């Protein structure tokens, strides 16, 4: 089974405010009409669905405007970064369907960044401060009160250069000195009150090893890396809009390529979390199986869960790009997947909670192959044969011993349609010593093959089933929200956000019975189990002997019903 390859991507993306700016910039000949973006993750965790929004925006703009988009690892924080993350991020960007023009690491620019810091010192625009972080923070002032100047603020350029060189050469301990920009301790922009440029950190870096013991701060490294790559539109999330004056200040003072920063609202999704740091806590404390646990909002978790790149791209397009922070309902993401899989996933039959059916008037030992349509939404998906015989499994809850009138499935004396097969009538049932029903004795009507009765007899219910003898056993995992609450920001101060983790987010069903065409472990595209949702083979835990399926999403939004 495979995805239809001619899947149509949507029309051209909506014209959001960033694309409007780019259109104007191209028209006015700014940056010589060139468009260059970048996606700049810090390799301190796996990418999540929030990053997908940024990826679709940055790479999408490059595609649309005939521009370029780089992948740049913002690896300025040696203690939290790791090559495992570097590899997973590249894998995830590609899986989403994008390819970068150039791959860069901020750490490749450390020498250039150091030289520019020296230039700032020479221009009397940076100085070495020898106070503690705490003192520096305490002198910052507030929105209404100016900050206090450091006693080291007026060191000579020569003294600063010497000290900065010694910082680099490892002559000081962590925290003994920092390099600060010399701007204005009374600026109305707090970010301009002599921000830190470098700190000492004797730590092994995943790429530069022990070459450096001073590391640039985000603000200093980020904008300058944009300039080095001649990024035209540097797109980041809204919380950085207060940093923009500093972004522009560096460019002006260093007289380097005039990249411009634009901010958009980050993605927040209900019932989950959008922070690598918090996701890492779940991984480290083993509250989930790993970064790719199907409950995680990571790209790797969503992939394992059965999400398709197409559905994630469509979702990102639907939510759009704005400057208003808000919450997107998880249902929007799920619906994007449903819409995609409804068109592309083949239908199969699987019984998750089986009860045995014996068709007493069906010849013993006989098996016939019935004709079934693979996907009613897509003729090109073709048809398949499914075995039918005397013993079947159906869902336990498709039978009631004493059903109410409106129950259109099986009960004693009642008749239903077996999908792609025959009408089936329940004659009686067998209970075990505990009073549990273990078998239904039924009869079928051979004249109803294909699901219609020649005498015009109507049945209301159609149920799925699996032929007992040829059924494949599988474990099926059902997932629910990672968080019991909608918004992790609602967790009161002083309480651990992890108390909001939904302990019932995973249900494991054993002994499920699948139609034989599902026996292959290699299928990496989801299928629809009729009436049950969309499922995918768990590529990590499945073996030829023991199949495991994950439910990507149910057919309908069951949460909406519960909430009402
Ligand atoms: P986290 O707090 O999860 O680590 P981050 O912003 O620190 O997120 P980065 O690796 O620095 O993560 O992010 C890379 C890019 O992805 C940045 O441009 C950032 O703005 C963007 N990004 C991160 N989270 C989101 C989100 N929730 N919605 C949209 N864009 C995001
Ligand atoms: Mg970060």
Structure commentary:
The protein is an alpha/beta fold. The protein has 3 domains: 207 residues, 3-Layer(aba) Sandwich (Rossmann fold); 108 residues, Glutamyl-tRNA Synthetase, Domain 3 (Glutamyl-tRNA Synthetase, domain 3), CATH 3.90.800; 125 residues, Beta Barrel (Ribosomal Protein L25, Chain P). The chain is built from 13 helices and 25 strands. The strands form 6 sheets. A 7-stranded mixed β-sheet has the order 10-23-24-25-21-22-11, covered by helices on one side. Strands 19-16-17-18-12-15-20 form a 7-stranded mixed β-sheet, with no helix packed on it. A 4-stranded antiparallel β-sheet has the order 4-5-6-7. Helix 7 packs across helix 8. The N terminus is likely disordered. The site of adenosine-5'-triphosphate has 15 residues, from helix 2 and strand 8. Adenosine-5'-triphosphate binds next to helix 2 and strand 8. Keywords: Aminoacyl-tRNA synthetase, ATP-binding, Cytoplasm, Ligase, Nucleotide-binding, Protein biosynthesis.
Strand order of the largest sheet: 10-23-24-25-21-22-11
List of distinct ligands in this structure:
adenosine-5'-triphosphate, magnesium ion
Q: Name the CATH superfamily classification of the largest domain.
A: HUPs
Number of domains: 3
CATH architecture of the largest domain: 3-Layer(aba) Sandwich
Summing up helix and strand content along with how strands pair, one would put the structural category as alpha/beta
Whole-Å distance between the termini?
38 Å
Mean pLDDT: 95
Biggest sheet statistics: 7 strands, mixed
Instruction: Return Rg in Å.
Output: 31 Å
Choose one word for the global shape.
elongated
How much of the residues is beta strand, in percent? 15-25%
